[in-house]
Amino acid sequence: MLIRTVVITLNLAFCFICSYSIFTGNYYSLRSEHQKAVLYFQRALKLNPQYLSAWTLMGHEFMEMKNTNAAIQSYRQAIEVNRRDYRAWYGLGQTYEILKMFFYCLYYYKQAQQLRPNDSRMLIALGETYEKLDKIQDALKCYYKARSVGDIEGTALLRLAKLYDKLNEFSHAAAAFTEYVTNNEPHADKNEISQAYKYLANFFVKRNQVDEAYQYAQKCLEFEETKEEGKALLKAIAQKRSQQEEGEMQVEDSVSVIRVRPRLAEGTPNNQFTPMNLSFTT
Q: Which ranges of the chain would DSSP assign to H, the alpha helix?
């Protein structure tokens, strides 16, 4: 009975010390004291080399310290303990991305995504890697899926918009930016959303849709990053509006003289492009 009590007590002490080491390591990690954090994670691993979280967390700390070799070793040890730990696969993907070894990076992100098929972060990471490898269609598929499964970080639409802009598919880019600002306005990154407003304002200016352009140019004024561009856009919009009004007056004068307004042929398409038309085809 005494021996059993001693064993239970030792086990409890063992678990307490391991947990304390992890807790303390996390504490130092939050304070950006990464070297101290590593020491506490190493203490936990000396007591229990199978402590999965300690290996993964230590990999993160080595990443913060720019020690990629040590990070890779830590993540691989975590995978040895549990091959279904998506965090370790994802960490390896990030490490090889930093090393610009994108085919390795792609392999590890794929492993992470297979373990977390509906995690938008895995899909975004995959999409970015496909972009770097110039596999554009695969990148688009990843971003669309990230959008459909629930974009945790709110970046899928932003990635779609920027990629479509690179491809010179400006209507699709505007559609993505429109949905992005609509869905993310309250909590989006200020720089990103201000640039999205600027893009949309310029897009509609080029299409001579002054009402929509005015709406987004006004939004540009709310951000220091785009305030000056917003003022310049508003001046350009005012000039275009004035030109449109002069054109309308000339048309009205000519109609009043001729007294005949020709009708559009039935079925003539209306090419006006409004925000309501901005939708994706998936």
A: 2-30, 34-47, 52-64, 68-81, 86-98, 102-115, 120-132, 136-149, 156-166, 170-184, 190-206, 210-220, 227-258
